[in-house]
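Incident log, entry 3
Record: Phosphoserine aminotransferase (364 residues)
Problem: checksum mismatch between cached and fresh output.
Input:
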Amino acid sequence: MKSNTLNFSGGPGALPESVLEQTREAIAALPETGISVLGMSHRSDWFRSILNEAELNIRCLLGISDDYAVTFMQGGSSLQFATIPMNFATKAYAPPEYVTSGYWSGRATSEAAKVASMKISWDGRATGYRQLPALHALDVSSSAAYLHYVSNETVEGLQFPVCEDAMPVPLIADMSSDFLSKPFRPELFSMMYAHAQKNLGPAGVTVAVIKRSLLERIPDGLPAILDFRTHVSHGSNYNTPPVFAIYVMTLITRWLRFDVGGLHAMQSINERKARRLYETLDSLGDAVTVHADRCWRSQMNAAFTFGDSRLDEAFIEMAREQGIVGLEGHRSIGGMRVSLYNAVTEQAVDILTNALTEFSLHRV
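Fresh output:
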């Protein structure tokens, strides 16, 4: 098995082998142009076709209507954390509300507070970020500008279930680590965004899907590059975009549509991978502690520990010798983390779980 498919990193994550092969070829010369993708002009007809296809693929995969604009931006989710309140936390509404459920939603909350008045609707700090709230049960002001949450906490391995209930205020979700991993109802959201280096390719591009009616709230006077309307009106080509990252993202969305067979098929694969991993971890009993409470466990990221940093490091080293990489836990909680992004294969998960079982029998 190639080492790419044994990459369990929290990001950048594994890429599909077919996408890697096409990318290798494109770096030398694109079949359509004879020019390296690294040297293609963002003003070329070729790149415009790539932008159009990427948008079409995302619309088809998610079933997004024309009520929404699809844009490709830069700066990752970190830039969105500040840009969203700049655009939508206007004085015409009560302060936006935020769910703080882990490391990255905490970052979003902190950045928003620098830009505008805001309110924390729920904070999981007291539980060590091991649980999540039910969104529909939150006491959110009906006049709030919006409610923001992170659908999957990459660091702690927590994931909200698919949203099924309409909220009384615009719902905005950072879906960076589970975007395109399963179907959901986009019509329940006013904005969804995701940076690429999980399920969408290399870092550099962030997908933002925004309800057009929400764009009408944006105040005049923002710097052009921080105004969402700029990117919508320029078709994601206002300033020089990350051509390479968008190209690879387009290949991945092709793979999802035509090789995998859509998001329902991708969901089934991801469910099998997660079930295999968690069954193995649970079978180890007290030897392993999974960070997230069982009912909130993520299908994308599992954070766990053998309870001793020396054992964690020993397993990481043993796994590395077998070609398994990317298991180090996030610096904020330590331990280990296994990320099961779309391109991680079921065979790779089998290899990992066998290694976990072997290690627990001989070392724990």
